[in-house]
Design goal:
alpha/beta; Glycerol-3-phosphate (1)-acyltransferase; seven-stranded mixed beta sheet; 9 strands; 44% helix; 18% strand
Length: 298
């Protein structure tokens, strides 16, 4: 069955980019207007994040978001057969912001949010970075699709670490310089285990792991976001957050990312994954104080 499904997707990947985008546009109508896939969640999130915007403005963001979501799906299929040259043309970045640290032997942690198209970023990084590139992923319950995505994501050399066994998988890479990419906008599984911050004016928990790992391993921390130059063309912008994470507390480093993430989302709201519930947890006093990122002088 795997080879049958893989064959179908590989044949689809051979279609020209413009044809894949025509398919994306066709699916958009079905997903947004008929199936209404997670539309209530998206609109609810946008209403909480942007109460100052009109309903019409939020609908425009939602529609752009769904177009980006479906474009990401088609672009991910295209990656099965796309060449390095094609990817390098369509996905650019200020790679030297990361590569500059390689001669010093310092390892890097990339902290990023779920900005489109992170799958293209995942396969572009090992092509352009001097470091081994480590990506963390959440294992899928559907083993057929997990096998397919593992093949796709590792096609150009990305080393994949299971989020459920990260310590174990990380051991073979920890003693040499590396770049470890982390989605630092994840919700913690247990709301009591996260740092709580004011995020778009509402309490939201953020995972402690990225900051804890950076401080514990004394890695250079670089924040990253992706934005769309035009359809099918993207740019990642890397910004050095700190070269000395051990001078910061976990909460200070997390606060710096939270402020960065909100600023990026406000600038490119249609590029963030609004279909997950950022504010699904309700704050309780026992979870600790809700802090505003700007209260940390970092």
């Amino acid at each position: 069955m795997y080879y049958f499904v893989y064959g179908i997707f590989w044949l689809l990947s051979l279609l020209p980019w413009r044809v894949l985008y025509l398919i994306s546009d066709a699916i958009y109508g079905l997903v947004f207007y008929i199936l209404k896939y997670r539309r209530d969640v998206v609109l609810s999130n946008l209403a909480m994040a942007f109460p100052e915007k009109s309903e019409e403005e939020r609908w425009k963001i939602a529609k752009k978001f769904y177009h980006n979501l479906l474009d990401t799906f088609m672009e991910t299929i295209k990656m099965l057969s796309a060449s390095e040259a094609a990817l390098s043309k369509r996905f650019v970045a200020n790679w030297e912001a990361v590569n500059q640290f390689y001669p010093s032997g310092r390892s890097i942690q990339l902290h990023a949010g779920h900005n489109f198209n992170w799958e293209l970023c995942n396969v572009s990084c090992p092509i352009n970075l001097r470091y081994p590139f480590l990506g963390v992923y959440m294992p899928m319950t559907n083993k057929l699709f997990e096998r397919l995505f593992l093949k796709l994501r590792s096609r150009f050399g990305t080393k994949l670490l299971r989020a459920t066994h990260m310590k174990e998988d990380f051991q073979i890479y920890k003693d040499a310089p590396y770049v470890l990419a982390l989605a630092a906008d994840q919700n913690p599984g247990n709301p009591a285990s996260g740092w709580w911050f004011d995020f778009f004016g509402r309490p939201a928990p953020f995972v402690k792991g990225p900051a804890r790992g950076a401080i514990g391993n004394n890695t250079v921390v670089i924040f990253a976001f992706i934005h769309k130059l035009k359809r099918g063309y993207y740019e990642t912008v890397f910004t050095v957050a700190t070269e000395e994470p051990t001078r910061m507390t976990e909460q200070e480093l997390t606060a710096k990312f939270v402020e960065y993430l909100e600023n990026v989302i406000r600038r490119y709201p249609e590029m963030w994954l609004w279909s997950h519930r950022r504010w699904k947890w309700v704050w309780k006093e026992e979870f600790g104080e809700v802090r505003h990122p700007k209260t940390f002088k970092v």
